[in-house]
Amino acid sequence: LTGPFHPQKLAIAALGNSGSTGADGIEGDIAYFPSFDALKAAPDAAVKGKIVFIDNQMKAAQDGSGYGYFGRGRFVGPNAAAKKGAIAIVIRSIGTDSHRNPHTGVTNFEAGVTPIPSGAISNPDADLLVRQWQHGKPLRLKLLLTPKTLGDQPSGNVIAEVPGSDPKASPVIIACHLDSWDLGTGAIDDAAGCGIITAAAKHIMAAGQPRRTIRILWAGAEEVGVFGGKAYFDAHGKERHAVAMESDFGADRVWRVDFKLPEGAAGLADRIAAALAPYGITRGKQPAGGGADVGALIESGVPTIDLQQDGTRYFDIHHTPDDTFDKVDPAQIRQNVVAWTVTIGLLANSADAELP
Length: 356
Ligand SMILES: [Zn+2]
Known about the structure:
Blueprint: E1 12-14, E2 26-33, H1 36-41, E3 51-54, H2 66-75, H3 77-83, E4 88-92, E5 118-121, H4 123-133, E6 140-143, E7 158-162, E8 172-177, H5 187-207, E9 214-219, H6 227-236, E10 243-246, E11 254-260, H7 266-276, E12 282-283, H8 295-299, E13 304-309, H9 314-317, H10 330-348
Helix pairs in contact: 5-10, 7-10
Zinc ion (ZN) binds at residues 177, 189-190, 222, 248.
């Protein structure tokens, strides 16, 4: 922040697919918007030639429900600002912490829209900017972001199976993703998920052979656009799958189970819910949504179950330098492994009539 007050350095991270300011940076007046909707409603003249700032403070929630609403500032805010003629955009991080860590993540520009420099500043820095804004004088920002777009690079999926005893039975597929953002180590997003599902499959294997095959998908390149999940679907989407599930919401405890199963699986859902109840997991009333890497399968009609994790602190850490192994609570990740073992054990031994 270069003016009109004493200059202040801000902690900023470039968003995925951001344009570059060039090595010299750019400077401009800030156009303040309290929300993505306010930016959308603004006339082009309020934005043209300026650096857009979207305030838009995400609220923590156990089910992480704020991400969809507040996340729009990141997912599509830069595209909207670029189309209105902004020279750059800075958003308040889509995060719930008070550390001076900006949260990165992907943003997407429509075909034909030139990506503008797009960054997220930490919550305390956004607070500082807002305090200055409240004085009512135009704010100046000098922005230096020099990301490079290298084009598509090779990635890969890793697939493993616990072979079932009945080769005619459709498999249970469980997924996580291997890649993470550059700022942290990816311990909670999503190494934890890969650890949880793999440990559960290993417990099933140790207990004896299941009837259905359990297929484990460690997907590559999720964060940049779910390329691994799409590649799996392109290769295997026409095969039968009994059910598809994903663990991609950190390492904190499972608190709710949601189902989206066929009519014939009512008894199976009851058995799973009853088996999970002793671990403090309640049955949700809404249909399960699945996860990004199995999203294409679920859209094609494959049933799914969500083991919903407590997301209260997930967005303190998500896509920041704080995503490190020490944030994984051993007691809570063990509860996840128990919940997954119970669930996929029942799924892998379910009857043909219960699942496709
Ligand atoms: Zn993830």
